[in-house]
Here is the input.
Amino acid sequence: MPTYNLLLLPGDGIGPEVMAEVKKIIAWLNAHGMGTFETDEGLVGGACYDAHGVAVTDEIIAKAKAADAVIFGAVGGPKWDKVPYDVRPEAGLLRLRKDLALFGNLRPAICYPALAESSSLKRDVVDGLDMVIVRELTGGVYFGEPKTITDLGNGQKRAVDTQVYDTYEIERIARVAFELARKRRNKVTSMEKRNVMKTGVLWNEVVTQVHAREFKDVQLEHQLADSGGMQLVRWPKQFDVIVTDNLFGDVLSDIAAMLTGSLGMLPSASLGETDPKTRKRRALYEPVHGSAPDIAGKGVANPTAMIASFGMALRYSFDMGRAADMIDQAIAAALAKGLRTADIKSDGCKLVGTTEMGDAILTELERLAA
Ligand code: IPM
Ligand code: MN
Here is the structure.
């Protein structure tokens, strides 16, 4: 069994609390001969800023590049609201994504049957939902230059962000989406705003071409991103794989998260290109939820998205599909037992904290392995 190196970056807020539950799972897999993981840990975000004056150090970037996978918690919080823009906590995450070239962000939204009541939507709309948002992660308006605020000298300032996409960036993210769809229900919905944005025009054109050239067997449809957002809450089960740019993907994936009952349920994988020689691919796994400073340190955060993110690492970085399935089943089983953290609490269920939820998932994992 190969030894895999994991770099754990818990970050800020609830990050360390939910990461502690993943550490239990890693220790359990090691102890039961289901994997050989070595872990290293580092600072990122506000925690890194407090220690080193930057949101991520060169040393951590080097470790992240060398690791087989990075497992990331969350960054940010009001404590760092006033720090300079380029060293704000989020800059650490953005630099990791950019320096590791993690352009493909997979954000599955699965509604566990036990949680269909926790969604703000009606049960029949979300029950059984199983879709993935593929978000482009290293381009678009989050990274485009110029990105400035200029003083116009007349009491006015002007802020500029630049939305920019090259053909190759759209091609490679489209391929991620089509390939993923082939392993699922074979349908891709591409979302952009071609009616008002040039990047939308190019996005639509390139996705259409990649489809015609390489993926004719996959069903492709296009939706404008605003109307796509509406469809996402109207009838989300029409979607299998949605592919969209960095900004729309950020917004639409938070919406998709809520369909599943809580932001605390949504994992994600951020993947780079596969190296043709080593067959390895850089990857970072993180929950979609943020650092939730309002509940940090209280032991009430939901560790499910963090644990499921580690499950995605098993699936996408280590080809451990069976173990990944077991983690998903263990989560479903713990929920079916009626255990709920505060974010997904409902009548007649047992309210538990972070460690109890983590322990319950581990217990189910043990049961499944036996
Ligand atoms: C996300 C987050 C990040 C983003 C922030 C923390 C920089 O909202 O991963 O969705 O905007 O991409
Ligand atoms: Mn976001």
